[in-house]
Amino acid sequence: MAQDDTVTRKLKNQLEKLYPDKTLATNTDIMIYLDYQLFMRSLIEEAERIAENENSRRIDESHVEKAANVVLQKFRG
């Protein structure tokens, strides 16, 4: 958990530098980090599914690229 705190603190500092005239809600950095984690988990699961469908034992770059197209469509809404 300590590493997650460090990541979210760094993210909050970066956001404050990018948008100095904006005020961030209390948990904005945590919500962005959780969305990132959810996206990465979905990407990995989709890449695993594609690799399994192609009877591959390992996930290749092509599997991740195909998975990225699918997952990005889901996350765009």
Description of the molecule:
It is a single chain. The protein has 77 residues and is mostly helical. The protein has one domain (3-75): Histone, subunit A (Orthogonal Bundle). Helix content is 77%, strand content 0%. The chain contains three helices and no strands. It has helices spanning 2-18, 28-53, 61-76. Helix 1 packs across helix 2 (28-53) and helix 2 (28-53) crosses helix 3. The longest helix is centred in the middle third of the chain and has 26 residues, at 28-53. The two termini are 30 Å apart. 6% of the residues are buried. The model has no long low-confidence stretch (mean pLDDT 87). InterPro entries: CENP-W (IPR028847), CENP-W/WIP1 (IPR052484), Histone-fold (IPR009072). Belongs to the CENP-W/WIP1 family. This is Transcription factor CBF/NF-Y/archaeal histone domain-containing protein. Keywords: Centromere, Chromosome, Kinetochore, Nucleus.
Number of strands: 0
CATH architecture: Orthogonal Bundle
CATH H-tier superfamily: Histone, subunit A
- Calculate the mean pLDDT score and round it: 87
Gyration radius from CA atoms, angstroms? 16 Å
Task: Describe the main β-sheet briefly.
Answer: none
Q: What is the CATH class name? A: Mainly Alpha
Shape: elongated
The poorly predicted ranges are none
How much β-strand is present in the residues? under 5%
**Structure annotation, total helices:** 3
Q: For the terminal residues, how far apart are their CA atoms?
A: 30 Å
Instruction: Write the CATH fold name.
Output: Histone, subunit A
Q: Give helix % range.
A: over 70%
The protein's oligomeric status is single chain
| Main structural class | mainly alpha
How many distinct folded domains?
Answer: 1
**What sequence of helices (H) and strands (E) makes up the elements?**
HHH
